[in-house]
Amino acid sequence: MIKKIGVLTSGGDAQGMNACIRSVVRTSWQHNIVPYGIERGYEGLINNLITKMDPRSVGNIVQLGGTMLKCARSKRFRTKEGRKQAYDNLMAAGIDALVIIGGDGSLTGATIFSQEYNIPVIGIPATIDNDIYGTDFTIGFDTAANVALDAIDKIRDTADSHNRIFFIEIMGRESGALALQVGLASGAEIVMIPEILTQEKEIFEALETSINNGKTSHIIVVAEGNKSGSIYEIANKVEERFIDFEAKVAILGHIQRGGSPSCYDRILASEFGVYAVKQLISGNSNVMVGTKNRKLILQPIEKVLNGKSEIDKNLLDIGKVLTSI
Ligand code: F6P
Question: Exactly one of 13, 104, 129, 265 is catalytic; which is it?
Fold first, then answer.
């Protein structure tokens, strides 16, 4: 019987984490379980930053980006000593189960900890990268995509006024999901992602087509982890080749992790939170909640960590079709 649940946000923050914390805290309270907030992820668990929460502690946060519990990437939690300290702190607070809100690094920590100390854990996928196997969407992806899209729409105004080729870097060290989403929605002529190598030749050909079709400005979306090299080098090469155009670079960076969560992210976060607490109550552990075809689902964390999330290559093809005429 679970009496106290600990909740933490870990890894990179994502918009909607607050809505999820609110959901976990209030659902726990509804079931006579006392929720505890752990600040700064696993690092805070080791440093004993554990505070009792109630429905009012999560008031007025559903609309806020970031995370009221703060995030961290903890090196110490990767060590046995760190995890032992974390366990001792949990036991001292009488916490019987954990809800971990974060990306795959956070889930790895959760599963190791749960196996080592037999603590029930449940994962909630939250990352702007949308690169977690076992869920169609992660918390934060929709908002980050809309933030980036809004920025590109603005860049388009100035790009077109000056006949420029704009290279815009989108977050995603390992994944091109965000760049793909934003690339198609913004009408980018080229989208460069880590999963598929874009040859210089392809960039030149796409731009030649675009120019021959009478376009006066061009948008190239480049995922942070693309394998074709530095965005500045690519932009320089393009400028040398297309001498009538100036090439400019805009790195959107962490702005994509900020701002008020979208309606979709708030709803997803709220649903995940309720579902996660209910799963813990019914005795499930070492699983991650997710969504598949708009339905809530559960996956063993081990399966999630061994699986590989696939990008939707169709988005790339649709983008090519729509921008090549
Ligand atoms: O995983 C989310 C993410 O925003 C990636 O897209 C990005 O590569 C990385 O985190 C940046 O991490 P940090 O905030 O630690 O620089």
Answer: 129
